[in-house]
Amino acid sequence: MLPMAQNDCFLSMSQDYLICTTIHKARQLGVFTGETFVRITLDKAHRTTKPYARSENPYYNEVMQIKFERDKIYCKFSPQYFVFEIRCTLTELLRLTVLYEVRKRNACKKTMSHGELLIDLQSVWNQPNRCFFKKWGRLEASIADVSNNTPGACKGYLQIDLAIVTQNSDPNTVLRPHEDMLELNRWQINQDYDNIERYERDIRIF
Predict the structure, then answer these.
(1) Strand locations in 141-174, DSSP E?
(2) What residues have CB less than 8 Å from 75, skipping those under 6 apart?
(3) Global pTM?
(4) Helix H or strand E segment including 66
(5) Cα separation of 48 and 62, whole Å?
(6) pLDDT (tens digit, 9 = 90+) per residue, 107-164?
(7) Mean pLDDT of the chain, nearest integer
(8) How far, in Å, CA of 34 to CA of 51, rounded?
(9) Rounded to 5 degrees, what are φ and ψ at 7?
(10) How far apart are CA 86 and CA 149, in angstroms?
(11) Half-sphere exposure in the Cβ direction for 200 (13 Å, CA)
């Protein structure tokens, strides 16, 4: 992390940034039919995961590696990883937000918003490694969703990684938990969704 005075020197200089995010899984979506997928939006750019069918607890895995060994087949799934490239000043970057939107598709192939999570890049930049690692976020009903009578209601939970990468970033620490934060955030990294409701007040991301 740069000293404050050195950081200030770069506030008005245009630089290249990579915004890297991984979609791990969702929990308690309350969607049992059709398909769900995640759409990620940063500024005017979009990325979309592959859909997952008929589950309220989907794993968003895109890459499947197959290994043959004698008479056995081993399959390994990798979480979906997306990169946004952006050139701007640090001040402009920290004003941006990343929108994670879980969308559902019914039998008629019509898609609609199920829930969304907004994360401002200022909060990511303030992290020790400029990243959130396996962070659970609370999905809320979209205000624009006129079919929902309670905008802001909980629509499930989404687990993600989100990192800001600069030319000064250490590739060995990107999207890895900072040692000082392991004990504080241990439940977020090592526990699954069974304990989410117990810690609901701690997993809001703004």
Answers:
(1) 154-165
(2) 64, 65, 66, 67
(3) 0.76
(4) strand 61-69
(5) 11
(6) 777 888 999 999 999 999 999 889 998 899 999 998 766 566 566 688 999 999 999 9
(7) 77
(8) 10
(9) -60, -40
(10) 37
(11) 13
Say which residues have a Cβ less than 8 Å from residue 3's Cβ, sequence separation at least 6.
none
Distance (Å, rounded) from C-alpha 105 to C-alpha 34? 6
Task: Retrieve residue 176's tokens.
Answer: 């890895």
Which residues are bridge partners to 122 per DSSP?
Answer: none
Specify whether the CB–CB gap between 57 and 25 falls below 8 A: yes
Long-range contacts of 46-52 (CB under 8 A, 24+ apart): 47/82, 47/84, 49/23, 49/80, 50/80, 51/105
- Which residue type occupies 132? F
Handedness of CA 165, 171, 182, 3 (dihedral sign): negative
Tokens of 184: 């504080």
